[in-house]
Amino acid sequence: MPVPLLDLKAQHATIRDDVVAAAMAVIDAQAFILGDPVGELECDVAGLSHTKYAVGCANGTDAILLALRALGVGRDDEVITTPFTFFATAGAIHNVGARPVFVDIDPRTYNIDPAAVAAAITPRTKAVIVVDLFGQMAAIEQVRAQVGTLPIIEDAAQSIGARRQIDGQWVMAGEAADIGTFSFFPSKNLGGWGDGGLAVTQQDALFEALMKLRTHGSRRTYYHEIVGYNSRLDALQAAVLRAKLPHLAGWSAKRRENAAYYTAAFADLEWLTPPYIDPANESIFNQYTIRVAERDALQAHLKAAGIGTSVYYPLPLHRQPCFAYLGYAEGACPESERASQQVLSLPIFPELTRAQLDEVVQAVRSFPGR
Questions:
Q1: Does the fold of domain 248-365 match that of domain 8-246?
Q2: Where are the domains of the chain?
Q3: How far is CA 207 from CA 47, 93, 156, 204, in A?
Q4: So what CATH class is 8-246?
Q5: Which of 153, 156, 161, 205 is the most exposed place for a label (fewest CB within 10 A)?
Q6: pTM
Q7: In the chain, which residues have pLDDT < 70?
Q8: Which tens digits make up the pLDDT trace of 243-259?
Q9: Residue 43 has what pLDDT?
Q10: Positive or negative CA dihedral for 252, 48, 183, 73?
């Protein structure tokens, strides 16, 4: 049977009544911009993330951009980040006038290498963005030890509800950064019916800055202390997300269960490397990403068998044409480049049946290249 990479219809079928009712309440109220659903979602996500504040915005990209602006990052500043992530991480740095500084990744977790961060700091470094890739948190405490008082933004677009043990305590995604950012793109573990984003922080001043920046630099209608953006989270999206949020922990647990099933099924395949989860982490498996030398051939084989896959990401950011001006040559971030040639993500969504999981396993194991 065909197995898609993601099946949002299967998820929707299980929660349709609750989500439609939440959306209809907003439609009947005809109050679509900010309002109670947004404030309620902000309280919910702040609670989940163990943070003092949460600020909803239009999308996950804007969450990063607003975070950078709130921290005072601007023209001619440098921001250190990873090249092995979605474009938004570095695009936001560019769009505030700063210069992305790319450093390599840990080849096991695909998250930023803390030692590489330390080596890249210059007098112009204004912030660091770590990314929680594929659903597991970056080693943020190790990065903090390297950068001292430099602000850290945690791009947690793929890791809402993930956690990490730091000094014997569980720390949630977004909790330990100066600002944590989330995306509610429909394919995320907690996805809306369109775009949506949110930033969390523990700091009063950053909360005030984020609140102004998302609404044209204003906290009082028609009075603008700074020049900001029109980046408000729609009430309709907030209502949908609140209806879904009680299911998030269960969905994440099912993703971990599916991941464990795959990993056990592939344990004897020497040519395939399953995801490595740092022992300090509890991942939410936004993706289940394997590593294979003959990646493209395997992907073609799986496509022929009706198995949905995707490559996150086929070209690291430091090699993207739009960042050629930065001057990174091939080989500048070798682990990121190697990963981009070898990674392949398999279906992991929580509604997968055992039969579907077995279809994926059988298709992988039947790869004729091995």
A1: no
A2: 8-246, 248-365
A3: 15, 20, 17, 5
A4: alpha beta
A5: 205
A6: 0.96
A7: 370
A8: 999 999 999 999 999 99
A9: 98
A10: negative
